[in-house]
Amino acid sequence: MDYLLLLVGLGLLLLAANYLVDSSVAIAQRAKISNFIIGLTIVGIGTSAPELFVSVSSALSNSGDIAMGNVIGSNIANVLLILGVTAMIFPFDIERLQRHRDIPFLIIATIFVALIANDSIVPGIKENTLSRLDGIVLLVCFIAYMCWVIVQKGKNPKQAIEDADEEAKSSLAGKNPWLLWGIAIVSLVVLIFGGNLFLDSAKNLARAWGMSEAVIAITIVAVGTSLPELVTAVIAATKKNPQLALGNVIGSNLFNLMFILGTASTVKPLTLVDINLWDYAVMLVAAIMLFMVVLTFKKDKFDRIEGVLFFGAYIAYTVYLLLR
Known about the structure:
mainly alpha, A middle domain of Talin 1, 13 helices, two-stranded antiparallel sheet, globular
């Protein structure tokens, strides 16, 4: 029964997140909010809604391992699985800003989260926690990064406007405002319900399989909440626009590390039991591998060989987790 409930919860999460983003974008456009702001806030946060609701729900139910495991697993899956599959379908170039700003910042953010979450490396401290102060610091870092992105986009206003118009498209544009608000509210309720259903089923499966919540979160929960990014990446690759996948993955990973972990630990500090240094190390290695793509084989290009290596690394890590 838990398998079915897990799938139902995941389906509700993904469906509700999609409608919440579409209705929110349409409402914001009716309120004359610029597409640029919509793209940076509603669309960016909305596409990470499944991870956000699962992590916050985990924090509130004292399941810190699921909250952190969800982020670690999503970040690893985004880079190794999603970009690996995308590159195997259609190799793509890496743009200058991604090379010099986004990927290095992702590496720094990954190291920072690993350090503040592993309190036990300090002599005399036995418990690993992500405190409320840690969460606030992460949210401040997130705001600073967003300001940096805005400044960079301001240097190329024409491209920024084009990107914003593309990001702020909504299938519900032009609908009755009362209908839009109704869809947004129902989507939010369904998102919360689906998130709790998905989370409870994952916990039950962890107990039934004799696995830790951390392993379940890094595998099943993480891949499930990363499905929107995977679908977007594959569609982008088949339409010969795989560059979109890289931007989505880097943005999603930074959202996960700073906004989602920051929000979850600010709501309630996370106590981490079964997340170990190897998990943080693999997340960091994945980010470094992404940077190494810029320097290896065909420079500044994510080619098929690298895609196969990334996909193989993800399979190897998953096998390691199941054996652990």
